[in-house]
Specification:
With 341 residues, the protein is α/β, with parallel strands linked by helices. It has 16 helices and 10 strands. Bound molecules: fe (iii) ion.
């Protein structure tokens, strides 16, 4: 029953925008299915239309877009799918609703570790999974992911669910670096250091550090910046914490992607590829940096000053495709060690 209700709610939400899309197949248009928040992404589409004259029709939803594309089959109006996190990117590819993008622009601009070797997805912006540390109680300014399992942090770490896609990717990166057996021991150590059962989101993790429930929390780079710059009610949580960019031993800071994919049956394929290339261009990349607090994937585009204030990002060179390949193993380990119990 619960499942059914969730499904109808999703279907209803999706259909709010059905009308606008079914009319969109003429030249000069591109249809985007998007998991990204409209307010973040609409300014980009407006700028694209100003630059190219191509109208952008958007269907936004928080879930179910791959299923919708699958159900629509060859009649799907979708040209481009926009999503965040390698977990969701990978799910779309696994669902079989995408096709490879052949684009010299992407190959030139986007570093190979942020692209699918088979061309089905490309990262367009990055976020790092970092430490929110208590300014008062944490003196050190550098940390490794490995160190999070050190007993010196016993009872001092807060984190959201180990099965959340953000942590799943971080743990999958750990597996990719060290192998499953070492990752399992690390997860046990990290679990033993938790101050409380994994809960909430990354903002709540900062809240709990600020409240003294834990000394360090794990969160994404943009949440801290949003709390600090844009969310007055949460600014105290940012003010009580400092961001430390952790690194893997012998590696760098774990980053995840927001990505673009070309729909398998894209009716406006040429415009879809144009949009994808445009999103990797200097205008869009600067917008991702300035208003979305994400790291641009394009070299030479400056990060937002708040994000730059964390220090120089030394992104882990591990290919994101290798992280995707270890997602399942990471999820199994989380269950095996009872991480969320
Ligand atoms: Fe997020």
């Amino acid at each position: 029953m619960k499942k059914f209700r969730a499904f109808t709610a999703t279907a209803a939400l999706l259909c709010l925008t059905c009308l606008t899309v079914t009319t969109a197949s003429a030249d000069g248009e591109v249809n985007v299915y998007s998991y990204r928040e409209t307010k973040l992404i609409q300014p980009l589409f407006d700028a694209f239309t100003r630059d190219t004259g191509i109208k952008v029709n958007v269907v936004s939803a928080s879930s179910g877009l791959e299923q919708r594309m699958k159900a629509e089959g060859a009649n799907s109006p979708a040209d481009v799918l926009l999503t965040v996190d390698i977990g969701r990117i990978d799910e779309a590819v696994q669902a079989g609703v995408t096709q490879p993008v052949i684009s010299e622009v992407l190959e030139t601009i986007i570093p190979p570790q942020y692209r699918d070797p088979n061309g089905h997805w490309a990262g367009i912006s990055m976020r790092a999974r970092v430490i929110y540390a208590s300014k008062e109680r944490v003196k050190q300014d550098a940390i490794t992911y490995e160190e999070l399992a050190d007993p010196k942090w016993k009872g001092k770490i807060c984190i959201r669910s180990g099965q959340h896609i953000y942590n799943n990717a971080l743990f999958a990166a750990y597996v990719a670096h060290h192998g499953e057996a070492v990752a399992e021991e690390w997860l046990k150590g990290l679990k033993a250091n938790l101050a409380q059962k994994p809960s909430g989101g990354d903002r709540e993790t900062a809240r709990d550090v600020a409240a003294g429930k834990c000394d360090i929390g794990i969160g994404n780079t943009y949440y801290w910046a949003l709390m600090n710059d844009k969310e007055a009610d949460k600014k105290p949580w940012a003010e009580a914490t400092k961001v430390i960019l952790p690194t893997f031993e012998g590696g760098g800071t774990h980053v995840n992607l927001s990505g673009v994919l070309l729909a398998k049956h894209a009716p406006n394929k040429a415009n879809g590829v144009k949009l994808i290339n445009w999103l990797a261009g200097p205008t869009a990349q600067q917008m991702y940096a300035d208003s979305n607090y994400e790291y641009p994937v394009r070299a030479g585009v400056a990060a937002n000053p708040t994000i730059a204030g964390y220090g120089r990002l030394n992104a882990d060179p591990m290919p994101i495709a290798k992280i995707a390949a270890n997602r399942k193993a990471a999820s199994t380990l989380v269950d095996k060690v009872g991480f969320d119990n």
